[in-house]
Amino acid sequence: MTKTKRDPAKIKKILEKRGYKGGNPPKGKEIHHIIPIAEGGKDTPKNIRVISKSKHKQIHKNRRERGEI
Prior knowledge:
Layout: H1 8-17, E1 29-33, E2 48-52, H2 53-65
Antiparallel strand pairs: 1-2
């Protein structure tokens, strides 16, 4: 596994281009990396999506149960 860091400035820029004020997701939403940073994913528009906090939590719970993380 490759471990790199998220780039908050890059993420902010992506979200601003998508119309999120201040480059932040709305209340109750979070950013999610489709391919996790720890697995070589990058801070790119194709790899970042904005989803609800509960859905984000469920995605990671499912991945843990499958032994993916």
